[in-house]
Each structure stands twice: as C-alpha cells, then as structure tokens.
Amino acid sequence: MRNSELIMMVLLLAILSLCKTNSLACNEREKHALLRFKQSLTDPANRLSSWSLTEGCCGWAGVRCDNVSGRVFELHLGNPDDSGKSTLVGKLSPALLELEHLKFLNLSLNDFRGTPIPSFLGSMSSLTYLNLWGASFSGLVPHQLGNLSSIRQLYLGGNSGLYVDNFSWISLLSSLESLDLGWIDLHRDIHWLDYVSQLSSLSELYLPHCQLNNMISSLGYVNFTHSLTVLSLPSNNFSHNMPNWLFNLSSLLVLDLSDNSLVGQIPSTISNLHNLIYLNLSVNRLIGRIPESLGQLKHLEILSIFSNFLCGPIIPDQLGNLSFLSYLDLHGNKLNGPIPSQLGNLSSLSYLYLYDNELNGTLPRNLGLLSNLVALRIGNNSIEGTISEVNFAKLSKLKSLGIYLTSVIFNVSHNWIPPFQLQHIFLMGCKLGPKFPAWLQTQRFLQTLTLHDVGIVGTVPKWFWMWASNIQTIYLGYNQISGNLSQVLINSTIFDADSNRLVGQLPHLSPNVVLFSIANNSLSGQISSFLCQKLNERSKLRILDLSNNALSGELGHCLMRWQSLTHLNLGSNNLSGEIPESIGSLFSLKAFHLHNNSFSGGIPLSLNNCTFLGLIDFAENKMTGNIPSWIGESTHLMVIRLRSNEFFGDIPQQICRLSSLIILDLANNRLSGSIPRCLNNISAMATIPSAIDDKFSTLNFSIYLGFQRSSLGYREDLILVVKGRKSTYSSILPLVRIVDLSCNNLSGGIPIEISSLFGLQSLNLSRNHLMGRIPENIGVMKYLESLDLSNNHLSEFLQAHMKSFNPLDFIGNLELCGARLLKNCTENEGPQGDENVEGSERSWFYIGAATGFIVGFWGVCGALLCKRAWGRAYFKFLNNIKDRVYVVTALKWSWVCYHFRRNHMIIWDV
C-alpha cells in the first residue's frame, strides 16, 4: 500500500512539474528570436509545427526553459530519424545570439547544405554543450569557437567538408571535457597534439579520420595524463612507433588506434594502462609477439589486434587472467602454435576470432565450456583433428560458427541435437560429410548456411528444401550433392549450389531471390520454361548463373520479365537461335555470357540500351554479321570476347572509344580490313594495371554474411587463350590486359600506335595477312609477356630488342629475317663488292680448267695421229705393260691359294 502511494505521489509531482513548465511565461524577445531562427529553415516533417505565436515558447518541441526565470537554456533539435525524413534544412540564423542564457545547443544530423559554421557561435558565451555532428557543414572551422570559455562538450565531427588551419584556439577551452572532431581535416597543423594536451580537464577525445600523421608531442609530455579516459584516433596516417606518453595515461579506459600504419612492437609498458576496458590496435603494421604484460590488464573487456604482423604463440597463462574479457579478435596475423586451452577459462568470453593465422594442433575441448560464447571463427589455420559433441557441450548461446580451410573432421552422431540455435554457419574446406548433416534441421533461426566443399556426397534429404525456405543465404558449392530440382521452389535471397551433381529441370524461383547460381551441374530442359515461369510480383533477381549445364532451346522473349538482372551467364550449354531483341529491356545488365553455345545471327541493336554493360562474352558460337559500330557507345565496356564465331567486315574504329577496355578478343572470325590505328586511345591498356584503380570491381557482387567483416558473393571469371593455352581467370582478371585478333583476314601493317599500349600483357596478331615491318617499340613494351605475329607476310629486319621473344612467335613470315630466326639477314643483304669479286674468281677458275683439258687432250692425241711410228711405239708400250701386270697378278694369286690350303690342313689334323 505504501509503495502505491509513493508511486502516485511521484506521478503527481511529474504532472505538476510539466504543467508548471508549460505555464512558464516565455520571454517575448527570445520567442521572436526562435521564430526568426525557424524561418531560416525548412521543416519537411513539421517537427517545429508547435512553434507559433499562439503558444508559449517553453512548450515548443525541443525547447527547454529555466523553471524559475523562464529563459530558454536548451535547444534539442538534433535529427531523431537516421533515414533523413525529419531533417531540418537551411542555414543557422544569427537570431540565436538573442538566446543569452542558452547553454545547450544540439543541431546534429540535420542538413545545413555545406555552409560554413557561422563565426557568431563563438559569441554565445553561455554554451556548455554544442553538438553540430553530421550536420553537413563545410569550410574552415572558425577560430572564434575558442571564445567559448564555458564549453564542456564540443561535437563537430561527421562533417567531412570541414578543415582546421591553425588549431591553437582549442587550447583556450580550459573547461572542455569531451571533444569530437571526427572526419575533419586536421593535418595542416602539425602541433595539434601540443594544443590538445593543454586541456587539463579533457576526459574524452575523438579524432577518427582526421588525416593526422604525427602522434609525437614536441613537448615530450601531455597535460591530460590523469584526466583522459577515452582516446580514439582510428583511421589516421600514423606511421611510427606507439609514443611513450600513451602509457602514462593511467586513467584511460578506452584506447583505439586502429586502421593506421603503426610500426614496431606492442610495448610491455602497456600494462601501465591498468584501467583499460577497451583496446583496439587492429589494422596496423605491428610486429613481434603479444607481450605477456597484456595479461595484467585485469579490467579488459574488449581486445582487438587483428590484421597486423604479430607472430609467436597466443600467450596462454596471461590471457587466461583476463576474467572480464568478452571480445577477443586476433585474426589476420602470423600467430603460431596450438590454441591454448587456457582460453577455456575466460568465462565471460562471447566473441572469439582466431582465423587467418598459422595456428596448429587440435581444437581444445574446454572451449566447449565457454557458456557465454556467441561467435567462434577459427578458419584458415592448420588445425586438425576431430570435432565431436564434446566441443560444443556448453555452447548454448552460440549464434555464429565459422570453421574453414582446415583439416578438421566433424564426427557427431546422426541423431545429435546441438545445445545451440545458430544464425550463421560458415563451414568450408573441412570434412563434414559424406552424409548430409541431419542436425541442421534442429536449427530454427538460421539466416546463413555455407557448406562449401565439405565432402557431402549423396541426395539432398526430403526435409531440406522446406526447411531451407526461410534461410536468407545458402552456399552449397563444390560438393557431390545430387537430387532433382524440377519441383523445388527456391526462396532464399542468395542461393549458390555450383559444382555438384544436381539434375532435372531448373527450379522455380521466388521473387525474393537476388542471386541464383547453379553452374557446373547436370540440369537440362528448355531454358524458355524457366525464363517464362509465372511470378506473382516483380523479380529482384540480379545474378543468374546457369553455365556449364545441359540446357537447350532458344531464349525467347521472356527475358523482359527479369529487368533487375545485372549478371547473366548462360555459357557452355546447348542453347541456340538468335539473341532476342528483348535483351535490351535489361537496362541494368553489367555482364552477359553466352559463350560455348550454338547461337546464330548478329548482335542485336537493342543491346545498346544496356548502358551499364561492362562484359560481353559471346565466344564459340555461330554468330555472324558485322561488329556494330554502336559498341563504341558502351563506355563501361571492359571485356569484349567474340572469338570463334563468323563475324566479318572491318573492326569498327569506334571501338577505340572504350577507354576502360582491358580484354579485346576477336580471334578466329572472318574479319578483314586493317587494324585500327586509334587503339592507343584505350587508356586502360595504355596504363600499368593497378589493383588500386580497379574499375572491374564494379562487376563483382558481395553480400554481408552476418559474421563480423565477412561477406561472400559472386565474382566474374573468364576462359582466356594465352600462349595457346586455355586458362580460367578469376581473382586476377582485373589485372589482365589482352588483345587477340588472330585467325582473321586482316591486312595492312601493324600500326605503330599499338606499341603505346604499355600495360598490354598479351598481343596475338597471328594467322592474318599483315605486311610490312614490325614496329620497333613493341620489343620494349615492359609488361608484354606473350607476343604472336606468326603466319603473316611481315618483312624487313627483326630488331635486336625483339630477341626476348620466342622465334616461333614470328614463324611463317617468309620475308622476315633477323636475330634468332632461321633466316639470317646477312645471307641476302651482305656487302655487294665482296660477292662480285668471289663470283669473278670462280668464273676464271672454270675457264682455265676447261682450256687446260682441251689443250692437253688434243696435244697428245693429235701427235699420235700425225706420227704413225709414234703411235705404234706408244700402243706397243701399253701392250707390254698389260702383259707384265697380268703375269705378276697370276703369280701372286697362286701363292695365296697355296698357303691357304696348307694352313687349313694343319688346323684339321689338330
């Protein structure tokens, strides 16, 4: 009874207080000042509708008056709605100066249209609280704010258009306790720290994204050693060691230096910060081991040191002392050794991220005792062994489980009922199969299911499709899952079952599906049946990948039903017919694959309507006609792949307008004419490939998975022919630069402008009818790894700087000669004088020999014919010589025969 009376009394006092506030007499001068302030703003949500002459200003929305004097002392006009629907728009009126007793002014998250912060705010000397956070101010932060001698809380952050040229005025705010200048450019004043350090009352300092590059005090000390509790300096440009003054801040509760470029080791003196609750040193370049002294921070609740270069083991005993630790993130380092079992003693631990390290051994069983654990990720390590029910015994609060790229084997009973209800499962590259895990059907709140390459073999169980209908994201790729999808309805936003053994016709899709990828399976049936399926509402489908199946038929005109499509891959099927004009209704299309089918006809004119198109792959079909000139109007095109078709005519000059083009593959067609001389206008090929300037990333698609900083998505890949070999390019595709015009009927010379494509890596102009000399600068194209000019009609010398290429790259050019070729230029183009002398000498030699033979022959024979006595004596002499040779030969033959018979008889007797 006494309690109810007390409650009634409190309510009565509150009502009386409210009535008193509303009945306060409003100062007329301040009332009219507020109305003038209102007139400088637009109020689309009518937040200030109560501001009128008929009502007292102390009852207006957002206005607070002093209970005694009735003077306005607080204005609460911050935007309460993040969507922007309640935003006040306009500029600040100097009428605010008439609010002489105003202490509190909150205008955060409104829109002041990039106007400067008015300097008159520095004259509002009564202000103790000023909040202009995220209110779209720009320009120089006025120095006059240094006159706010009573200010305690100053929040100017979230205005990325603001900058400070001289920060000395901040040191005048001697009463300042909390300062937020996030996203304001402070780099112009290198002494920023010296000025801030003079604020002896400062308790909280927030300076994220301020382009600061120096955290070293020229004074060697700071004055807020015993007052500062929060120091937040993430996402700046610090590239030095952690300064010593940091570790004298004995009152510090929060230290955030993440996303900088800090170097060196974490000092052992970090233990001086014995009151720390939050420590974030992530995304830096810190090296060495985790210091043992870190274990002395007994109050630490959040420890994040991910994405550094820390090595050595996870310190077991010391981390085990952090009994209040609820969040531990060490991923993305080089930590090695086993996961210490002492982590199982951290009874408050809720989030444990150890993935992307070099840890080994097995998963400690006592991690299963962490009854408060919500998220566990240990992927991409060398962890092995078996995980059983024991490892999950007490994990009743577990919501996210990520184990991937390890040798872990799941060994749980078929009828296991887990103690948890997961929201996100991310298992990849470990051993979960061969059976489909039956325990999944006990998970009623699952949002993300990733079972990628986990060794599942066999048919999808009957319960799966109904159970999975409410799961937002499903990845089942690279298993050996079988089953017929003909009667299945897919309702997930993301569904990817690539590289399995699924059969039947394509499933039905709910309008909610955004990504559907089922490439590399054995699906069959008419593609038109799928495209023309009945939809109750407009489809949200953006990614459709049906490549590498056995689909057949023509596309038909139902493509217009899928107007949200950005990526369409129907490659490597049995599709035929012409590309329908309805393709032009896919206005958002970015990537279009029809390769390795039997499409015929030309490229439809309506494709020009797809103004965001960045990739065309119609290779290996039966398409014909000219390459249309309007293709040069598709300014986003980065890949044109039309090889192995029957296109004819000239290569259109307009193709040179495609400044973002990185792959041009028109090989194996019937193209004629000359190579366009304007190819040097393709700037993406004329510059060095860089991962920083990656326009190709606009073709990729990713989605947040629910894990911290994790996503999966869809990445474009292409089959390219380089150096005569087919290879699939995916992750490095944005860095590839290729021109392949081989196997056509191109004529004329190789334009010298092609040597201006300095970023080009592969150039194939083989098997054409090109003539003339090879441009000299081709040999000095630094990034050119593959060059094929074979089987043309090139001539002239092959310059010495071309010797880095294979001679086979030039074979089949009969008139081409030069270094390392079979045809040496000196055979045809040596000194003419020497050749004439040598030829003359040979001629006189043959003339002299013939003359000598004639004179000698007729000199002897003529004398024998004229003098008969000489003739008889000569022939008698020859006759005697003949007889003598006969007698000697007969005697020698008789002697040989005699000795042969004698030796033969001796051998026989023996």
Description:
By secondary structure, this protein is of the alpha/beta class. Helices cover 15% and strands 23% of the residues. The chain contains 10 helices and 60 strands. Helix 9 (832-866) crosses helix 10 (868-909). It starts with a helix and ends with a helix. Residues 12-22, 828-841 and 900-910 have low confidence and may be disordered.
Task: Outline the fold blueprint.
Elements: H1 2-22, H2 28-39, E1 41-42, E2 63-65, E3 72-76, E4 89-90, E5 104-106, E6 129-131, E7 138-140, E8 153-155, E9 161-163, E10 178-180, H3 192-196, E11 204-206, E12 230-232, E13 254-256, E14 278-280, E15 287-288, E16 302-304, E17 309-312, H4 316-319, E18 327-329, E19 334-338, E20 351-353, E21 358-361, E22 375-377, E23 382-383, E24 386-387, E25 400-404, E26 409-410, E27 424-428, E28 448-452, E29 457-459, H5 462-467, E30 473-475, E31 480-484, E32 489-490, E33 494-496, E34 501-503, E35 508-509, E36 515-517, E37 524-526, H6 527-531, E38 543-545, E39 550-553, E40 567-569, E41 574-578, E42 591-593, E43 598-601, E44 615-617, E45 622-625, E46 639-641, E47 646-650, E48 663-665, E49 670-673, H7 683-686, E50 701-704, E51 711-714, E52 718-722, E53 725-729, E54 738-740, E55 745-749, E56 762-764, E57 769-772, E58 786-788, E59 793-798, E60 815-818, H8 826-829, H9 832-866, H10 868-909
Helix pairs in contact: 9-10
Q: How big is the Rg?
A: 44 Å
**Span between termini:** 151 Å
On the 0 to 100 scale, the average pLDDT is: 87
What is the count of β-strands?
60
Query: What oligomerization state is this entry in?
Result: single chain
Shape: elongated
Kindly estimate the percentage of residues that lie in beta strands according to DSSP: 15-25%
Which structural class do the helices and strands define? alpha/beta
Largest sheet: 29 strands, mixed
Q: What is the overall number of helices?
A: 10
Helix content: 10-25%
Low-confidence stretches: 12-22, 828-841, 900-910
